[in-house]
UniProtKB/TrEMBL annotation:
Keywords: Coiled coil, Membrane, Transmembrane, Transmembrane helix. This is Prohibitin family protein. Gene3D superfamilies: Band 7 domain (3.30.479.30). Residues 195-247 form a coiled coil. The keyword Membrane applies. SMART domains: PHB (SM00244). The keyword Transmembrane applies. PANTHER family: PROHIBITIN (PTHR23222), PROHIBITIN 1 (PTHR23222:SF0). The chain crosses the membrane at residues 20-40.
Amino acid sequence: MDSKKIVNMVPKLKISPGLITFGIVIIVIFFTALNSFVIVNAGHRGIVLQLGAVRPVVFTEGLHFKIPFIQDVIPIDVRVQKSQSDQTAASKDLQIVTTTVAVNFHLDPNQANTLYQSVGLSYGERIVDPAIGEAVKAVTAQYTAEELISKRSEVSSKIKETLSSKLATYYMILDEINITEFKFSQEFNNAIEQKQIAEQQALKANLDLQRIEIEAKQKIEQAKAEAESLRLQKQEVTAELVKLREIEAQIKAIEKWDGKLPNVTGGAVPFVDVNNAQ
């Protein structure tokens, strides 16, 4: 069968202009409806732009109506965010100090549109990071290197106060700040170590001196006690006591004598052999 005959046998579809117009209207209504509503997710706010200009209204979480093709909604995160960076500063005694600072902050939900209008979405690198560095340098310069270690909580509190004031200017709220570590130069660390060694040696020498002084005082007191004892003994010695002691010694000697005279004697007295004489 000829192909032309087959084409002629197929009925031709006729689309009226009214049907085309209706279809276009349906499509326009469909896309208009889609563009008339916006959903703001949890933890976010919606910045309303009308023909590129920031509107004073801020959309909260949920479903909102907007003027289609006229208004756009920019979502912005208002949850707690973290910024951590390494900062280098100079202490009051001109020691180079390196510290790691971790900051938690969030945007003021009611002023999110003002922040977007003045800063945009790059507020972290434009505002937060420079503010952290400036606050750390300003506060660190008020303390010596040793005070930064011994007064760490006070330093952290002052940095938090300074940084909070700077962020509040741009409608950001500081939640918490953590200074993880202070690092100094190797020369300063060696000097601290030598100082600690010297202090320990001085303390040991002081304790040794105290021990020697105590021992000397003990010896003096002991000598005084012995001298006092001798003095008391001398006061008790009399002529009668000496005579009594001599008599007691003679009595003890007589008690020990076996009745025999000695065969040998010395000195100027001549020796007499009693046995031979008899």
